[in-house]
Design a protein that fits this description.
Layout lengths: L1 H11 L7 E2 L5 E5 L4 H4 E4 L2 E7 L1 E6 L2 E5 L3 E5 L3 E8 L8 E6 L2 H8 L15 E5 L2 H12 L7 H18 L3 H7 L5 H14 L7 H7 L4 H12 L3 H18 L5 H7 L5 H12 L3 H9 L1
Antiparallel strand pairs: 1-2, 2-9, 3-8, 4-7, 4-9, 5-6, 5-8, 7-10
Length: 290
C-alpha cells in the first residue's frame, strides 16, 4: 500500500488549503493548514481518504481521529468541528474525497445481492482502515487528473468501483442505508434536509417525526443515534454556522444576523455563539478576518 499512497500523494499534491476541485465529478482534494472556520461546517455525505497527516472530527459528543490509510464515511449532512494536523515529519495534511450521490449508490445496489440484517440505531459517520483494493481504485480515479479527456468515459466506472469497495467493507451498511428509502437512516435524512433548508424557521419535532414516518420517541432515538445531536441541537449548530459565515463575510452586525438565522433574542444568540466558538460574535469574526 505504500507505493499506492506515494503515487496518490503526488497526484493530489496540487491541492490548496481549501476544497480544490479535480475536474472529476464529485471528487475533490485539500492540503495544508485549513482555516478554522472552514473546518467548522455542515459536512455533506462523502467518503474521505486521508493521505498525509491526520484529522479529528467532532460531531456532538463524539470525536473521531483518522490517519493515513484510513477513510471516513459520512452518510448524512452533519454539523461538525474539525481540526487537521501535519504528519510527524512535518508533511502537510492531505486528503481526497468523493461526495456521495444516493441515486448512484441505489443504482449500484440494484445490481448486488441484498444483505441480511442491519443495524437498529446507526450513526451517520464512522472511520475504518482502507484496503488495498480501495486504494487501487482511488489511484486509477486520480490518474484521470492528468488525462482529462478520459474523465467522461472512465470516472463513472471508477466511482462505481469506489462505492462497491466501500460497500464490501465494514462501513458498507452506511451506504446501503442512505440509498434504501425504508431505513431509519434514510428517513432521518429527510428530516435533516428539512432542517438545513429551513433552519431559520421554528422547529416542531412532531412535524419532523411525521415527515420521517416515525413515532416521536423513535424519531428522537434514531436522530440522536445518527447525528449525535437532538433535533434542536442540530438546528442550533446549523444556525450558528450560518451566522458565523455571514459575520465573516460582513453581511451585517451580530443583532441583524441573529434575527436572520432565526434567533428571537440577540442576547441568547451571543451567549450560544460564544459557547460554541469561544468568543462573542463580533470578536470572533474580527479574529478570523484578521
Amino acid at each position: 500500500m505504500d507505493t499506492q499512497l506515494k503515487e496518490l500523494r503526488q497526484l493530489a499534491s496540487r491541492a490548496e488549503n481549501r476544497r480544490t476541485e479535480t475536474g472529476i465529478p464529485r471528487v475533490a482534494m485539500v492540503q495544508g493548514e485549513i482555516p478554522e472556520h472552514q473546518l467548522s461546517a455542515v459536512y455533506e455525505p462523502m467518503v474521505n481518504l486521508i493521505l498525509t497527516g491526520s484529522k479529528t472530527m467532532t460531531v456532538g459528543d463524539r470525536a473521531f481521529r483518522y490517519d493515513p490509510a484510513t477513510y471516513f464515511v459520512m452518510s448524512v449532512d452533519l454539523p461538525a468541528v474539525g481540526s487537521v494536523h501535519p504528519s510527524e515529519d512535518g508533511e502537510p495534511y492531505l486528503a481526497i474525497s468523493l461526495t456521495l450521490e444516493p441515486a448512484i449508490v441505489a443504482n449500484l445496489l440494484a445490481d448486488l445481492p441484498k444483505p441480511a440484517g442491519g443495524q437498529l440505531y446507526s450513526p451517520g459517520f464512522s472511520v475504518a482502515p482502507v484496503m488495498p483494493e480501495l486504494l487501487d481504485t482511488w489511484l486509477r480515479m486520480l490518474r484521470l487528473i492528468e488525462r482529462p479527456d478520459e474523465i467522461a468515459a472512465l470516472a463513472p466506472a471508477y466511482e462505481r468501483e469506489i462505492l462497491f469497495r466501500v460497500l464490501q467493507g465494514p462501513l458498507g451498511w452506511m451506504l446501503r442505508d442512505i440509498a434504501t428509502p425504508d431505513t431509519a437512516l434514510s428517513r432521518i435524512g429527510i428530516a435533516i434536509r428539512w432542517i438545513r433548508e429551513n433552519f431559520a424557521k421554528p422547529l416542531r419535532v412532531e412535524a419532523l417525526a411525521e415527515m420521517a414516518a416515525l413515532s416521536v420517541s423513535a424519531f428522537h432515538r434514531h436522530f440522536k443515534a445518527v447525528t449525535a445531536l437532538s433535533p434542536l441541537q442540530y438546528q442550533k449548530h446549523v444556525r450558528l454556522l450560518h451566522a458565523r459565515s455571514r459575520l465573516i463575510a460582513g453581511e451585517g452586525n451580530a443583532t441583524s444576523i441573529a434575527f436572520g438565522v432565526g434567533y428571537e433574542s440577540p442576547t441568547q444568540f451571543s451567549r450560544e455563539y460564544a459557547r460554541q466558538f469561544g468568543l462573542p460574535p463580533s470578536r470572533d469574526a474580527a479574529r478570523l478576518r484578521a
